[in-house]
Design brief:
Mean pLDDT: 89
Order of helices and strands: HEHHEEHEHEEEEHHHH
Number of domains: 2
Shape: elongated
Number of helices: 9
Structural class: alpha+beta
Length: 195
């Protein structure tokens, strides 16, 4: 017997995701694909892309592409690298791809998504504007490790500290968990900062 659609359950899933949800999440709340199509035609749900919908009560967001990438990448996926900078509005970078990190070694490929497989702890993940994203200090360390543009990295560090999104101590603590080379590079970035 088919489970009856449970709007409250779906809403509780979609709400922390700014109203976005996947077909699989909807199916877990009792909705069939036919139900989703019918509700989309009646403007209750909005079909965003293949496999991703938004409850119509929620307004769209300019991070829609990141929500889609995140939802398509699985529950352990986190926005990271240049994409995290754009979420935090740090530096002038405009990422060409959506950057996602997940703590697995399996390989995934999707057009427009740059996957990074690294160890990531819960303390290095936060929610910002409804998105699951690496913390600012973890984002900076990821960029340093990847050899990201030094001018944009320095700009992001200065802006993050000036706006209170992280402290120098938080960044240094994150860098201490990495190689001596990464720690030295981060200290170099911080030396030019006004005391």
């Amino acid at each position: 017997m088919k489970e009856k659609p449970d709007y409250e359950k779906l809403y509780s899933i979609a709400e922390p995701q700014s109203g976005y949800f996947t077909v699989k999440q909807a199916q877990n709340a009792g909705y069939s694909r036919k139900d989703l199509s019918s509700l989309a035609m009646r403007k209750k749900f909005i079909r965003i892309s293949w496999g991703v919908y938004r409850i119509a009560l929620f307004p769209g967001t300019h991070f829609e592409d990141l929500f889609i990438a995140l939802l398509r990448s699985g529950s352990q996926a986190v926005i990271s690298h240049e994409s995290a900078l754009s979420v935090y509005d740090l530096s002038d970078v405009l990422p060409g791809d959506n950057h996602i990190t997940f703590p697995r070694t399996s390989s995934r490929r999707r057009r427009g998504i740059q996957y990074h497989t690294k160890r990531i702890t819960q303390a290095e993940v936060t929610s910002y504007q409804g998105l699951k994203v690496t913390t600012v200090s973890r984002t900076i360390i990821d960029l340093v490790e990847s050899g990201f543009d030094p001018i944009q990295t320095k700009m992001a560090i200065d802006q993050a500290i000036d706006r209170g999104l992280m402290t120098k101590d938080e960044l240094l603590a994150q860098a201490r968990n990495k190689s001596e080379s990464i720690h030295r590079t981060v200290r170099f970035y911080l030396e030019g900062e006004k005391k």
